[in-house]
Amino acid sequence: MKEETADAPAPTPETVRVFIALAPPDEAKDELARALAPAYAAYPDMRWNRIEDWHITLAFLGELPVAAVAALRGPLAELATAHAPLELGLTGGGHFDERVLWSGIDGDLAGLHLLAERVRARVKECGIDFVERPLRPHLTLARARRNDTASVLAAAEGLAGFIGRRWPAARLHLVGSNHARGPAPVRYRDIESWAFTGGTGPVTGR
User: Fold this and answer.
1) Beta bridge partners of 165
2) For a Cys-Cys bond, which of 74, 88, 116, 119 suits 107, CB 3.0-4.6 Å?
3) Has 55 been annotated as catalytic?
4) Which distant-in-sequence residues (6+ apart) come within 8 Å of 8 by Cβ?
5) Catalytic residue among 55, 83, 95, 173, which?
6) Residue pLDDT, tens place only, 69-122
């Protein structure tokens, strides 16, 4: 009789692909999803991001050792406790290179850029090198399939008149993804998040 052995646990990855971001609340995401309903129906073959994965990237750090990610927790937590929530909104639509569909961001854009600068400064203080790209506030919605650019252009045009409600961006998110770890779709998960508790916060609503 062959001795039964338990399945070996999956190896823990030594690195993780990381970015730091803000996330719209569910009400704002639902509002945009309703505006996207015609595009969902018309262009089902586009690679649509899951609504729960929608985010506004402040700093993309790329593939990092797990130990380096742990070193970010304290500095980012400290930053969040000193920062007030930002009043933001989702508005309109556009595309990058006819390949990537996005919704724009409005509201306290000056505060958003300042927050991104502070986040990136904390990352550098932790000794983490990353490619620092100019902040272009947006929320990525979908990507075109190969040899299909018309769908992105049409979907962006369909969002041109969208103006969403204002909402407070109330938490700072440290996010990891499984990008490039196999054929499965990219999935994101919060490694940790922290509430913005500094100041009095914005007045919400239009």
Assistant:
1) none
2) 88
3) yes
4) none
5) 55
6) 899 999 999 999 999 999 999 999 999 988 999 999 999 999 999 999 999 999
